[in-house]
Amino acid sequence: MMKIKDKIQIVCLAVSLLLGTSCKKYLDVAPDNTGTLEYAFRNRNEAENYLFTCYATLQQFYDVSANASFVTSGEIIYPNNLSKHPLNETGFNLLRGTQTSSNPGLNWWDGENHGQSIFRALRRCNIMLENINNPVDLTETEKRRWIAEVKFLKAYYHFYLARMYGPIPLIKNNLNITDDIQSMKVKRETMDNVFAYIVSLLDEAAPDLPAVIGNQAQELGRITRSIALSVKAEVLVTAASPLFNGNADYTSLKNKDGQALFSPYNAQKWQVAADACKAAITECEARGAKLYTFIAPANITKLPDSLRTVLTLQNAVTEKWELNSELIWALNPTFPFQGYATPRMTSKSAINIFSNPSTFAVPLAMQETFYTDKGVPVSEDKTFDYANRYSIKTGDNASRFYIAKDYATVKEHFNREPRFYASLGFDGGIWFGNGKVDVNDMYHVEARGNKSLAGPKDLNTLNITGYWPKKLANYLSVYDDGFQEQSFRLPLIRLSGLYLLYAEALNEVSGPTAEVNTYVDRVRARAGLKGVQESWTSFSNNPSKYTTKDGMRQIIHQERRIELCFEAQSGWDLRRWKELQNILSVPMQGWNIYEEQAVNYYKPNTVFVSVFGLRNYLWPIKDNDLIINSNLVQNPYW
């Protein structure tokens, strides 16, 4: 009888030829202590090790430099060609026009250019399902759970590929070594079939997944029913969105047999998505999920409401998973890039600049996406001096918990919503924490010119816009004589995002109903803002905006961009909405960082002009893959 290892190697070779994927070692991205294929299913312990190899590719998503959503959202700019503290720049450079079909960046199809091979991960999942009955000491309850986990992983891996490439081959089973070559040349499935298969796997998985993780010390990060239902909601909202639902730009995309891969618009998809969102919310809330609120530890006294709100919003991302009532799903590896999001604020940190790069830069356009303190966009607020927003203003007593008193900064930094101050570090901005928890003695950022603490010291440790993604740094992390971080796990799904997803789907079904407003307003209330109706009626120069489906759609889209900024969510949203091209058509700008005087520093300066056209909404399939598998067709415009 052929050994499983030999069989898998033959199947692996076949898939390599047909999909264009390479296959060196199956477990080359698996965690330590993973069983080899030859012994993977001889008993329960070895089979559990193999289960963890099925999770292995999922855990690679913690590296946001390889995350297609994070690096191409326009939220973060990373300076290229750094000689110290270099991240892999492949993904960040995609906005600089480096993408080609001959050598795609972040190639999650083949596992090249800072991408993992998801097809390899799918093969591992299928191997697990094919052999799950082998261990005789595996209980029936454990078996059902493990099968459900692997089906979820198969669904999520297909979903990740679908968001990047659109119609994809479905890897329902591993190829049989006795199949003829022609039948091995798989073709792309229709978009409807892709989403239907993903949803079917999630439906099969959900009943056998645990409602909660009982042993958090050993199992936190494994899939629960709440996670599966929440991902199903995201899948169905994506399927209903403009990129995939009736997209006229893709009507010409067909298989070589003439099969159209995109179908006409179907409004019913939004109702199905809304139902899935509501089911996910119901399940999550039944398991105790609620919007997070910061509870100050004993060493923080007399915390003003304004700072408490800021810490609530910041810690909704950086709080420990087991203490965060809002966190539905996060990746188990801790977020490793806090040092890229933290400016220098002490004399020791300014001397020891190589311990922390501080190079994640937020463009000016993203800063201006946040609302004013009246809860409406800066360009719509009739009380906000938008025309003179770049003039200079000095911090005063009223704003002392947001902006350093007596420090000259730009007028646009004043009278903004709490999420602005929770999410961004900027010149003159208060940074509560970093080793100080006394509200009468807080750090603030000084970023003007190379003589300032946070300003440019050399080409490897500068922030090229003057804004840091503060939201990605735990307030307890300290950058002083070196960097000591308080670790956290970057969320994949939070309850606030699920609320906004439900509101979005409901609005597409029936327009701005009371229920739509309810779920948007829950998120706004936690952020210290009045409801949509009150805010727009009282303060917007477009007071009736929220009364139309189009107007409410714009509001919900902006709410999601603000609420979920820097969390590797907006890139997917902007793609599925078909809005990313508009966002990236504006030059990437920051402040004039080398100037010391405020009047000269606060002048918009173009960092680079992004390159993003219609073709970039979907990744190209590598040219060589099309040669190897003659049944594959290329994505439009490549």
From TrEMBL:
Gene3D superfamilies: 1.25.40.390
InterPro entries linked to this entry: SusD-like_N (IPR033985), SusD_RagB_dom (IPR012944), TPR-like_helical_dom_sf (IPR011990)
Subcellular location: Cell outer membrane
Residues covered by the RagB/SusD domain: 359-638
UniProt entry keywords in alphabetical sequence: Cell outer membrane, Membrane, Signal
Main location: membrane
Domain SusD-like N-terminal: 107-232
Protein family according to the UniProt entry: Belongs to the SusD family.
Official protein name in the record: RagB/SusD family nutrient uptake outer membrane protein
